[in-house]
Predict the 3D structure of the following.
Amino acid sequence: MKKSFLSKLINAPYILWSAIFIVVPLIIVAYFTFTNKNGSFSLENIYEIPDYTGIFLRSIIYALVATAITLVVSYPFAYFMSRTKVRTQSMMIMLVMLPMWMNLLIRTYSWTTILEKTGLINSFFGLFGLGPYNLIGTSGAVIVGMVYNYLPYMILPIYTSMSKIDKSYIEAAKDLGSSSFDSLKRVILPLTLPGIISGITMVFVPSVSTFYIADKLGSTKTLMIGDVIQKKFDIDVYSGIGASLSLVLMVIILICIVFMNRFSDSEDGGIIV
Amino acid sequence: MSNKKNILELKNITVSFDGEKILDDISLSISDKEFVTLLGPSGCGKTTTLRIIAGFLEPDSGDVFFDGEIINSLPANKRNVNTIFQRYALFPHLNVYDNIAFGLKVKKVPKDEIKKRVKEMLKLVNLEGFEKRSIAKLSGGQQQRVAIARAVINKPKILLLDEPLAALDLKLRKDMQTELKNIQKQLGITFIFVTHDQEEALSMSDKVVVMNEGKIQHIGTPQDIYNEPVNAFVADFIGESNIIDGVMLDDFKVKIEGVTLQCLDKGFKTNEAVDVVIRPEDVDIVHPEKGLITGEVTSVTFLGVHFEIIVDVNGFKWMIQTTDESKVGDKVGLLIEPDAIHIMKKSKYSGLYGDYSSFSDEMDEISNPDVEIVSEED
């Protein structure tokens, strides 16, 4: 179908917007990646990337662990939530979303008061003469921070796909001899797969690139790639290595999204990132 | 104790939701290999009855017997009963083959046998070659067949059908009625069929159970319920009827519209007030002088096979189906044979049905802003 002049006109602002705020920044990132301080072509920023392999790996592993934990926590939660009365459901959704209305930095900061040496948990153990334990500054604390911050992004898409399932499918499964476990395995799980995939992507992608959480709740040993990039640009706005690390991170995320999209071939399984 | 020959028995089943009685003391016996239809308007409790039999719902009181054993709290997956759902509920993530094979896979039947039985089923429902087709790419009629195959492959003793033809268009519905009946004979199992379509109920069933307001109104063969309805509700719901107030003068003698008519009914008290049912096709229109009752034609509708004529007799409007044409305003006589008259005892439905001076209840409800029309799905 040939597009009319009018529809081109209507689309123009969006195309312009995308160009200025998506394409141009990407070009700038690429430019700083492949140039040196003098502005001439150079691969020195690329050669430096292998030094950060460990941090990349750590980021990916932390993000995978955090994603796995959120999935394990969210799926049963969404399942039982979808089974409650409609009014209870909207109440619970509100409670799930409530922390999202607060800034991520504040939410993360509040965890330090829970985890630190004189924090809530250690004070509690202190009552029984235990501890204080080293909670803050560990990889566990970083993962807890990510799970807490990104949990709603897992619960909501799974809950949405769960509540869309027609009750008669579950009755049909029962009618055909399925136990509750069989229905879960053969009907509910496959039908909620788009939600699961969407949730995994929405938790993994921000987790792998997150900064501040590891900085605040972790130590130098638990630094993630997002923190490294942030620090590079903190020191030098025109950081070449910061740009190249960002580029690698984007490629990793892109690969991950393409990979996840292959799982959800159904029409309604589109991933929102 | 229950009778051995009955495959299923419901005894005094009562179910309430939020204080409202959905089923009120339902008792019903169904024998093996019978085609039973639960018939009634929406909200009459027929689907709830089906869900009790399927095991999706436990009765508040009363017992469900299957082969003589109480199965009140036996879960659906342990019952030898399968259901065809109203909108089929075929699994959208599985293709035709996997949908049909579902029940056998759950029961861990060997793969070779599953293959063989799915093939037999596809043949039974005339869908050979559709194994790999996705559910979304099937027409309503094809989905219906897959739903049948998916249910009967499990060799249930009873197949429950919840308005399975409601979504199909008229021609296909007629064909599927015949086909379902054939499948039932071929498999030799009991079918319990839920519908609000009285024609469907009459043409397919061995036994019809007419329900209204959570109560069974009438159980009988299609002929029984058409020819000898127990009350005004049944008479009106099954086909068209003129229901006239009458007085039983004596055995075989009933007085309506001031005229005494011969009838075949007896056993009523002298001068007992009764409801008199006369089917529109059983009234002959004759010259006013030859008729037993006289009236004036107020409307004539040509319906192809016959005319539908409304005749005003002292303010009560009769519906008459006849092949003889009349004109609006004609004075006519009505002739009624004794065997066309059916006498019913007065019931709470007396006076509510059987007069053609107004629209149907449904039509009245549609135009009434005070009535909220609630569909049967909860």
The first helix of chain B runs from residue 46 to 54.
